[in-house]
Amino acid sequence: MNICAITMVYKDYWALSQWYAHYGRMLGFDNLYIVAHGADAKVASLCPRATVITVPRETLEGFDRRRGQVLNSFADGLAVSFDWVIRTDADELICYDPELYTSLHAVLETASAKSMFALGLNVAETLEDDVLAEGQMALGHRRTAVFSGHYSKAWVTKRGTGLWRHGIWVGPKRIETAVFDLPRGVYLMHLKYANIDALETANQHRVDVGNMPGRGLPGAAWKEADQTAARFYARLAGFHDETWEVARDHAYATISADPVRDTKENVLRAKSTVFEQRVTLPEWVAATFGDT
Questions:
Q1: Which residues form the domain of 16?
Q2: Domain total in the chain
Q3: Cβ contacts of residue 208 below 8 Å, gap of 6+?
């Protein structure tokens, strides 16, 4: 089974380094593809064995739609040569429970559709955590997380399947019957809140872009990125602690029971359920996906 991974990035260097190290270890660094949104020599220097493709950054109007079209087209081209194409944002790492799967290949061998979803978590830095040193993997040093319906995203596809709005585009004839393949023990670890220093740098870029003049720019999450982050940390502090097993089973049952079948956009996706239980990541996360 041949698997590759693709992401698109603009100056999010810390997250990109995490993405490159994580997927390179699992798939081989030569099977990584990075779309640089604007010329940036630092991307290639941080990811020396990946294939880097530069696309123009002349306009940011229609940001999400343009970005989605570029990545879907590129991923579908890669799927001519690869059995599966992983596509995540640079701050999203797919992990699997080693008691259930021996590898990412083993995960994909269980597929019942041409795409797969993962149960999402927001991984967070807390006051007790040390600042990450250069080269350290966040999943080796961050233990606090919250399950997230919003980040229970589609993350891998076969040829002919496009990702859209955190789900998959299935067309009007299949919207009611398309398989929502959410395997147990597979997680999308969202690292946006796992490194406060990197978050502050990234948020300044998001605020700048979100407040530019033009149509179709990213919404309030970018316009008010710093406020969005502050609200996340405030809510996190107020959540009650729950065991990993109880919170995991509740999140899985909730997300898998009733996915959204959007007949307007013809998109199958997870419901954006907000979970309010703070969990400690199990030891296998750091042992399997932390520092080598």
A1: 3-289
A2: 1
A3: none
